[in-house]
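Internal tracking record. Fields below are filled automatically when a chain is submitted to the structure queue. Please do not edit lines marked as system-generated. If the sequence contains nonstandard residues, flag them in the REMARKS field before resubmitting.
Queue: standard
Priority: normal
Entity type: single polypeptide chain
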Amino acid sequence: MPLVQAFPLGLPLHGTTTVTFADGQNQVKLLAGAKVSVGTKTKEEFGLIILEETSTDILVGMDFLLTFKLALLRVSWRSDYLMKMRSRR
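SYSTEM-GENERATED OUTPUT FOLLOWS
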């Protein structure tokens, strides 16, 4: 989450973490606690988020999607769909 969006929300800082990128580069990032809800879902989850100094986007990972039982389906490079997962019977 961009720092400029996080600070006005008053998110509590929870220290730092080291992130390793695909090229092997390591960077230290700030962590903050946040409660998240998706769309009209009533379920809210608390977790840690990484605060980015230069980013203007909010990125979510696969664990986040699984928490809300959502899946991302990429049909082509221009078509992404967020779908609700069904439980197996």
